[in-house]
Fold this protein.
Amino acid sequence: MTVKRNISRSDILDISDYGKIRKENKQKLIAIKKDRRVAVGPFATFYFENYDTMWSQIHEMLYIERGGEDQIADELSAYNPLIPQGNELVATFMIEIDDPVRRDFTLRQLGHIEDKIYLSVGGEKCLAVPEQDVERTTEDGKTSAIHFLHFPLSDTMAAAMKAPDAEVIISIEHPEYGHMARLNEATRSALATDL
């Protein structure tokens, strides 16, 4: 099976055609995302992306914003970098706190958290590489609630990731938020298809 690693203009449906399959696509996406979500600690969540999640995201943006042909190139440019390109995993990392006052306070404590996130596969560890589109921590130390992260895996890590029951751990090693989670087998198996 060939894994798609790029969304081109020819992959984009006409908005009226997308509207006809939108409900069905959302149901399909729920099943895909179920095994691609990893909670770490009380309020951090990783949503591991792939071609399907980004294809849906682009179509949703086009459907909601109705920017037409002029919007398509921008959406492709924004979301194609979040599709894994071989020996990597890509995740949207979110700090999810409903209360705005608590969220603001917490984000001010977590400056540069994006530089303290690791993935361990079979005991080998790699540091997450944040997308460089914009600086996600401000000069006063407040981090963003959303980060886009790449996990570059060595060949050994990628091979280990494909082995059933491999130990895969994601960890946040920030002084103010030290938590880790072991990926369950369904998530490991889903993410292995990205490699």
Summary: The chain has six helices and nine strands. The CA atoms of residues 137 and 143 lie 4 Å apart.
